[in-house]
What we know:
The protein is mostly beta strands. The chain has helices at 49-57, 71-78, 146-153, 201-206; strands spanning 12-18, 21-27, 31-35, 38-45, 59-65, 93-95, 101-103, 107-120, 124-136, 168-171, 177-179, 198-200, 223-226, 232-234, 253-255.
Amino acid sequence: xxxxxxxxxxxxxxxxxxxxxxxxxxxxxxxxQTSNPExxxxxxxxxxxxxxxxxxxxxxxCAIISERATFDIIKGFGMRSGKTENKYEGIKSRRxxxxxxxxxxxxxxxxxxxxxxxxxxxxxxxxxxxxTDREFFxxxxxxxTYSYYQKHIKPKPAQTKxxxxxxxxxxxxxxxxxxxxxxDDIICPICKHGREAFVPLNEYKKDEKxxxxxxxxxxxxxxxxxxxxxxxxxxxxxDDIICPVCKHGREAFVPxxxx
Length: 259
């Protein structure tokens, strides 16, 4: 079976390696352009750390996610910033021939890519690539499409209100609602943030300033989080922004609490 047959409009992990640093991000823009010679393209937001690493090194690898994957791989590579966090923490992986670190669990296989050209697309760069190596892990699996992810893997949106009386707290990062008294050592089951991310639900609904940054920041340090999927945008936010993960618009973004 040809691994090219597993490419679809889906979700992929694009990974890069520069010096001693490994990083990756979730994309849905892997496409086959020609079969002879084999030419693929990947399009990456310029704000991603992975983008700059690929630009500097001219190499990358792209893993095809399986329908059997869990939300952990999407959350690990798509909802954390590689500029401040190690995205491979808790992720089983192996080193490819080109030096990139490939996630294994829930991955059908991967292509090693050599960048031959690039196209500036404004907010994104499209990299034109030639596969230099490939490997199957789960040959019989079906690739994870964006539609399947939305229906079967992505956590359901949190309720916007709590029926009945009683205490309730909302995670200001992802919207998860905790019912009842809250413990100091609570960990959000969706985004894994701690007690500092929770506020009383009634206060949150009355005063949206709860989500304002905790300290003044320069425009370059501003951060906004997509309340649908958790994607974090760094820098001033344009009115026409489209979340690269869940495709929601400006209305889904709120200021990201700063430490």
